[in-house]
Design brief:
By secondary structure, the protein is an alpha/beta fold. The protein folds into two domains: 28-113, Rossmann fold, CATH 3.40.50.10860; 139-272, NAD(P)-binding Rossmann-like Domain (Rossmann fold, 3-Layer(aba) Sandwich), CATH 3.40.50.720. It is built from ten helices and eleven strands. A hairpin with a 7-residue loop joins strand 9 and strand 10. The longest helix is centred in the N-terminal third of the chain and has 23 residues, at 6-28. The relative contact order is 0.16. The mean pLDDT is 97. It binds NADP nicotinamide-adenine-dinucleotide phosphate. NADP nicotinamide-adenine-dinucleotide phosphate is lined by residues 140, 163-166, 168-170, 191-195, 198, 211-214, 232-234, 271-272, 275.
């Protein structure tokens, strides 16, 4: 069994991005610029945005955060998005989710200029991805595909079972892995909350991807010997032995499952760091596309 070290791969990609950004700065005196819009003070969102700023800094990119109050109206948020859409200094931006309930998320995502939609959530980019055309891929699926590529995991003709069909992970990932591409060319099964006998599907998987948001859902009896297991889930579990009072676990029961796998991603240190770096990859891509 080999552990897929997402942290190390993400660090290597960051070094590549950093070198490219340094060259861009040398040649043009400009640097890719990522912005984030943060509505309210959700602690997890605050942490995510702070870590995105840190990531940008670590590779020499510029970053900025537009902070709006919890009570911001939908039209005020749309105005801020419109401002960022027009601002030529900003190559890409994200609207940190979740948004307060009174704001229509679909309307907000649909108002982002697709050329700056580095989260890859705009229907235009998802549609282009479906058609196999150049687009921004959503960060988590993009990071996972990049992990498979860098570990040279053969995907062609393999049966991939994706647990979860969310718009940001399961659905786009299932499309990316079934396309005529490398990594790709998989035969993909998607399971969700209405799937009957999930185990019948998961035990057929050469590649099993768990993105359902249920702590340690995937147990050893659900996994085929020699499977590649990618764990997208991330959960805080109370743990008094840790100074923080919690430990992190995924959608896979790692201790049980690892011994059966050919490859497995740990939590933390697997998919998470790749999601962060994928946003930087998209920002660099947006910058380059803008200069063409
Ligand atoms: P989500 O939007 O909550 O979607 C969960 C999906 O799993 C849904 O399609 C749901 O089915 C399905 N599901 C839930 N319970 C199930 C069950 N018991 N059996 C079968 N299917 C079930 O979640 P998400 O945003 O895709 O995220 C999934 C997990 O990944 C979460 O733990 C999240 O925190 C984590 N995550 C991690 C990263 C990272 O960078 N590491 C990034 C994104 C998300 P229905 O569609 O039928 O409701």
């Amino acid at each position: 069994m080999q552990i897929i070290d997402g942290k190390a791969v993400a660090a290597a990609i960051k070094e590549e991005i950093k070198a490219e950004v340094a060259q861009i700065i040398d040649n043009t005196d400009e640097s890719p610029h990522l912005s984030a819009i943060l509505v309210g003070h959700d602690p997890a969102s605050e942490t995510y945005v702070a870590s995105k700023e840190k990531d940008c800094k670590s590779v020499g990119m510029m970053s900025s955060v537009y902070r709006l109050s919890e009570r911001t109206t939908e039209s005020e948020l749309l105005e801020t998005i419109n401002f960022l859409n027009q601002d030529e200094e900003i190559n890409g931006f994200i609207v940190q989710l979740p948004l307060p309930r009174h704001i229509n998320v679909e309307k907000i995502i649909g108002s982002i200029d697709p050329k700056k939609d580095v989260d890859g959530f705009h229907p235009y980019n998802l549609g282009k991805m479906m058609l196999g055309q150049e687009s921004f891929f959503p960060a988590t699926p993009y990071g996972i595909v990049e992990l498979l590529r860098r570990y040279k995991i053969d995907t062609a003709g393999k049966h991939c079972v994706v647990l979860g069909r969310s718009n940001i992970v399961g659905t786009p990932l299932s499309v990316m892995l079934s396309r005529k591409s490398d990594p790709g060319n998989c035969t993909v099964t998607i399971c969700h909350s209405q799937t009957r006998n999930i185990k019948e599907h998961t035990t057929q998987a050469d590649i099993l991807i768990a993105a359902i948001g249920q702590p340690e859902f995937v147990t050893a009896d659900m996994v085929k010997e020699g499977a590649v297991v990618i764990d997208v889930g991330i959960h805080r579990i109370a743990d008094q032995s840790k100074r923080s009072g919690y430990s992190l676990t995924g959608d896979v029961n790692y201790n049980e499952v690892a011994a059966k796998c050919s490859y497995i991603t740990p939590v933390p240190g697997g998919v998470g760091p790749m999601t962060s770096v994928a946003l930087l990859m998209n920002t660099l891509k947006a910058f380059k596309a803008n200069r063409k």
